[in-house]
Amino acid sequence: MRMAIMAAVLAVGLAGAAGAQDVPSPYDAVDPFIGTAGKGHTFPGAVAPFGMVQLSPDTDYKLLREGYDWASGYRYDDPTILGFSHTHFSGTGHSDLGDLLVVPQSGELQWDAGAADQPGSGYRSRYDKASEVAEPGYYAVNLTDSGVRAELTTGVRVGLHRYAFPEGRPARVLIDFRPSIYDYPGKVLWSRIRVHADGTVTGFRETRGWAPGRQFYFAIRFSKPVTGYQLRDREENVPYRGFRQPGRTPDDRQQVEGRQLEAAFDFGEIDAPLLVQVAISSVDEAGALANLESEGGAFDFDGLRANTRAQWEEALNVVQIEAAPEMRTSIYTALYHTLIAPSVHSDADGRWRGPDNGVHQADFTVHSTFSLWDTFRAEHPLLTLVQPPFRNADMVNSLIAAQRVSPYGILPVWSFAGQETWTMIGYHAVPVIADAYLKGLPGVDGEAALNAMIASASYRPYGGLGDYMDLGYVPIDREPEAASKTVEYAYDDWTIARMAERLGKADVAAGFDRRAGFWRNTFDPQTGFVRARLADGSFREPFDPTAINYGSDYTEGNAWQYSWFVPQDMAALVGAMGGDAATVAKLDAMFDFDNSGLDYSHAEDIAGLIGQYIHGNEPSHHSAYAYVFAGAPWRTQARLKQIMDSQYHSRPDGLAGNDDVGQMSAWLMFSAMGFYPVTPGSGQYVIGRPFTDRTVLNLANGRRFTIATEGLSDDHPYIQSVTLNGRPLARTWIGHDEIMAGGELRFVMGAEPNTAWGAGPEARPYSMSTAD
């Protein structure tokens, strides 16, 4: 696919050139291999927009030995494929899932994976790299050792495999239900595989992984009759605990239970491809069977593939992009990655499993996989522009529903499969809800939303919140990562204040506005950095602003990154830094910092360094836009080009860091259009600079918003002027309501910076202290 795209774009030159023809469609411009090497941690397999099933190849078992580079199950340069499993994260810095590994086999039955450097030692197979095809909703590859041509496609809750076996060799499918590439010994608490009289296979497993107590159920149907099967518990020295009918041999059971299960299904020699339908559920086996019927009743691979392709085409065509070929591929792939999660979690009948491990009924589609510390920044704001209101309402209502049944009465922190992982900090479901509601999202109960937000911000046992409310900051001698927690809580509190204000609750708004100013309690005017304080009020010593040590003062970062996290009041931060000139100088010092004497090899997720700016991790993501708040938007324009040129590429290692369930991609998507949501909840986007010749947003309300660029080139990186609907725009922000009204934002670019445009205080975006 990648070669076809490049051939097409090279044939026509720049996509944005006048009269350009035959450029790839948005669908064909997507390259799912971007991010599958380097630190991107994406997967290339088949998935529908926000699909419950992510059906993708898994390549190796190195995770426990070599870190999280295999967190998505696939590495572009790995020489073998183990099989194809049905659940994957897109670009996380942690691992789990990889449920239900399906392995097509021909020849002798192999129960174990074997070694990558010993072909034939197990069921893993080498594969023909040139045969690999990855498109939205489709994946295919030739497995050379087994001789199988494997094709994958998905619906929302169903995965469909098509295996063409070599002529004259027996066809077999192995299910490996043991701890997978993502797992560790003892992760599987219990599991079951059962074969029904009609040949349907169902089962479940419960795991104590990243999300403890997660339950996974499946249902499988084959397009051809099974000629024989074996069910095995591979755990050593454990008596057999499964059901066995009288007279059956141990390898001819109808059901097996245990912690190390495998199953092999034989089909003999077949003269047509074998199709394997798999549906999943977090509720029960009946739910998986119902999901199978809801969209997988017929073994119509091409029909399901076409239907999912149509869904992707509709989703991707919301944005029409004219840009240089590689940039266009990067942008459309970024858009694709932002539409994988949060994924559908409820079954076709509306049932879903919540954080209380109970089963609940919903009248909307429940979503999960909320990487909120990452995605509140740009992923969710992007979805309010490119997805219909019902989808965004489903996500917001999913957060509120999870809070309602949470054993702790709080909103999700980092959840998947409905379960809480307690990963990362803050209560960032709050800005996701507030940003969407304040933009006028229909279908959300504002009172219920505000109550859920307040509950999360008032749960004293969580992350030092009790001290934060009492002292005005989180003390480092009582709570790790205290400096980061203080500033992130303060921003979240500001969004609660705006929500309360909208709902006419002035007293609530005043209380949370006060808390929104607590960031000042961590800012040290002597050093100009946000720092951790002790319970006695003193700053912790010694202090090194470049130090990155997990569990210490900051979360996946240091003082250089976190000192800019005051998105609710950047004007006040500029004042605390010493004014415009001092702020610009400090930002330049961060980007131009000499790292040659520093070693960050111990720090996972620290990738994409430009000085002390770390684009591969989220705390830095708004920092390039901070120049705008200090009256130097031309410096933002220069830094954005520096970031784009060094951190994004249209190749497998094209993401500088973990995509983090779409956040890295959302940054690219926004920044390519020319603006970015520095402060979700403000209703504003801060203008950076465009990287496309033309971008058209086909909005859900039927209107179109166009971003047009004149004179864009590598040697014209600076904005000369901006107009909105034909009128000069002197300010450095655009409102969400202005975009939704439709119209045109036009940039004129040039070789030299226009240092006068957007420099004055009156031109600057929202800040809490200057809002009036």
TrEMBL record:
Q: Name one GO cellular component term.
A: cytosol
Q: Where is the Glycosyl hydrolase family 92 N-terminal domain?
A: 30-281
Q: Which GO terms describe its molecular function?
A: carbohydrate binding; peptide-N4-(N-acetyl-beta-glucosaminyl)asparagine amidase activity
The segment(s) forming the Glycosyl hydrolase family domain are 288-750
* Family matches, as InterPro entries: 6-hairpin_glycosidase_sf, GH-type_carb-bd, GH92_a_mannosidase_put, GH92_N, Glyco_hydro_92, PNGase
Per the UniProt entry, the signal peptide is 1-20
Which of UniProt's keywords are assigned here?
A: Signal
Q: PANTHER family this protein is in?
A: PEPTIDE N-GLYCANASE PNGASE -RELATED, SECRETED PROTEIN
Please report the name of this protein according to its UniProt entry.
Putative alpha-1,2-mannosidase
